[in-house]
Design brief:
The complex is a heterodimer. By secondary structure, chain A is mainly β. Chain A has strands at about 5, 10, 20-25, 35-40, 45-50, 60, 70-75, 80-85, 90-100, 105-110, 115-120. The chains are: A mainly beta, B mainly beta.
Amino acid sequence: QVRLVESGGGLVKPGGSLRLSCGASGLTFNKYYMSWIRQAPGKGLEWVAFMSETGRTIYYADSVKGRFTISRDDADSSLFLDMNSLRAEDTALYYCASFFQGLDGGHLDYWGQGTLVSVSS
Amino acid sequence: EIVLTQTPGTLSLSPGETATLSCRASQNIRSSYLNWYQQRPGQAPRLIIIGASNRATGIPDRFSGRGSGTDFTLTISKVEPEDSGVYYCQQYGFSPSIIFGQGTRLEIK
């Protein structure tokens, strides 16, 4: 059974930093692309960042580019999101999700339960 | 950048009725790159349809998807109370990035 567990969320002041972690079990982590998706309170889903299984391909949403950094530790089956220069609009529930990259298409097949980030003074 | 527009915003049905949810893309996209997710209240999203028309593992056959080009549809036949939630279409491939529609809320009366 696949399990993704996020941690590291909390309350931080504008301009501050936070590191989110996602621990994975039940899947061959080093074969999977991984992604972070966020959901502001009462709003829809917003893709944040995406990393290939090798780590060589990384993409970010324009809204976080230059402020957030995605990384992974395959030895520990962990995904990370380093968030700097946080803004009020970054307040959201952050989900970790595995991304199945097929020959023709791809989808987010497993999701964690999320960790809440609140940016407020 | 591709925009996915979902209609209606909210759909309110009685048990046993059929739900028809629409997802329209601002430009042609490959069907294989269009997926649907269900998010029940208080839960994480769950993958339900892959590549426009293929049910994900464990998804009942009441759920079906179709479409091509710019117009895609998720149909839920004989809706049940457990189908309540928000449904999102999602596209992958251009930019490259992952793009979500704004969601359709399904309420079962």
